[in-house]
Automatic annotation (TrEMBL):
It is found in: Cytoplasm. Its EC number is 3.4.11.5. Keywords: Aminopeptidase, Cytoplasm, Hydrolase, Protease. The keyword Magnesium does not apply. It catalyses: Release of N-terminal proline from a peptide. GO terms for molecular function: aminopeptidase activity. The gene is pip. GO terms for cellular component: cytoplasm. One of its GO terms (biological process) is proteolysis. Belongs to the peptidase S33 family. This is Proline iminopeptidase. The lineage of its organism: Bacteria, Pseudomonadati, Pseudomonadota, Alphaproteobacteria, Rhodospirillales. It comes from Niveispirillum cyanobacteriorum.
Length: 316
């Protein structure tokens, strides 16, 4: 029977830093089997950073599990730094890490923003990717960004009202600019409270059933600052050109084995986007979890992701 839950906790067998330019120093780690099939985990956000739990989607006896905190996120430094922080740089960082670790080809696993970056990397370097596991699809289009800023109030009005009310009435016609001004302010007394509100708004909308633990973790200072500042930066400055570029270029990776996992009631990244991706990429396996929202930790989503990594043991 296919495995249905996370693997046991484990520690890395190696950690390191990769200096990718004059600004950014990236944290990376490896765990599991040093001689196993390499798999790269890409965290969400952008800016959320990775956690020890993310190692547990993979059988550590089979996979060489590689985790990277992206520019400005998690344990990478400087935290929340926006210089040289865009999709081409992030894609380049993944390729630099692959070369640094001496890996020829690897599997790539990413959810939410991690799905965006996974697709962008695979389209840029299709010969380096042996398989893709994608969750909670986000394709960086204006309609998806506007949904996050304004549309989620249709389902989570309480959370959105708090998100909106933090901004003075005179600035509420453009929440992104209002938050951007605060999140990039040099004074922590200004940027940290705004970051907590932004991050906890997202956390409040990320699960099918309320999760006070997730909302509380979303308000932790380092997590909130990395997530909120870098998300606002990407929403404001990193639109793809054309904005449907990831869908338009999907033909470059349709030959790569892939699994798309989507919660039916994902409000942060609604299922319509995953449906569009699958229509453009019918070769990919498409798994709709009927009783789940956005979080990778939703029981049904977690099970589907682990089962996908188990199925992909046939890839080399």
């Amino acid at each position: 029977m296919p495995r249905g839950d996370l693997f046991s906790p484990l520690d890395p067998f190696q950690t390191g830093r990769l200096q990718v330019d004059d600004v950014h120093n990236l944290y990376w780690e490896q765990s599991g089997n040093p001689d196993g099939v390499p798999v790269l985990f890409l965290h969400g956000g952008p800016g959320a950073g990775a956690s020890p739990t993310h190692r547990r989607f993979f059988d550590p006896t089979f996979y060489r599990i590689i985790i990277l905190d992206q520019r400005g996120a998690g344990r990478s430094t400087p935290l929340g730094d926006l210089r040289n922080n865009d999709i081409p740089h992030l894609v380049g960082d993944l390729e630099a890490l692959r070369a640094h670790l001496g890996i020829d080809r690897w599997m790539v696993f990413g959810g939410s923003w991690g799905s965006t970056l996974s697709i962008a990397y695979a389209e840029a370097y299709p010969d380096r990717v042996i398989g893709l596991v994608l969750r909670g699809i986000f394709l960086m289009r204006r309609s998806e960004i506007d949904w996050f800023l304004y549309g989620m109030k249709q389902i989570f009005p309480e959370a959105w009202n708090h998100f909106n009310a933090y901004i003075p009435v005179a600035e509420r016609n453009d929440l992104l600019e209002a938050y951007w001004k605060r999140l990039t302010h040099p004074d922590p007394a200004i940027h940290l409270p705004a970051a907590r509100v932004w991050s906890m708004y997202e956390g409040s909308c990320s699960t099918l059933m309320p999760s006070p633990e997730l909302v509380s973790a979303s308000g932790e200072d380092n997590h909130a600052l990395g997530l909120a500042r870098i998300e606002a930066h990407y929403f404001r400055n990193n639109m793809l050109d054309p904005e449907d570029k990831l869908l338009r270029d999907i033909r470059a990776i349709r030959h790569i084995p892939a699994v798309i996992v989507q919660g039916r009631y994902d409000i942060v990244c609604p299922i319509r986007t995953a449906d569009e991706l699958h229509r453009a990429w019918p070769e990919a396996d498409y798994i709709i979890v009927p009783d789940a929202g956005h979080s990778a930790m939703e029981p049904g989503v977690r099970m589907a992701l682990v089962q996908a990594t188990e199925r992909f043991k046939t890839l080399r």
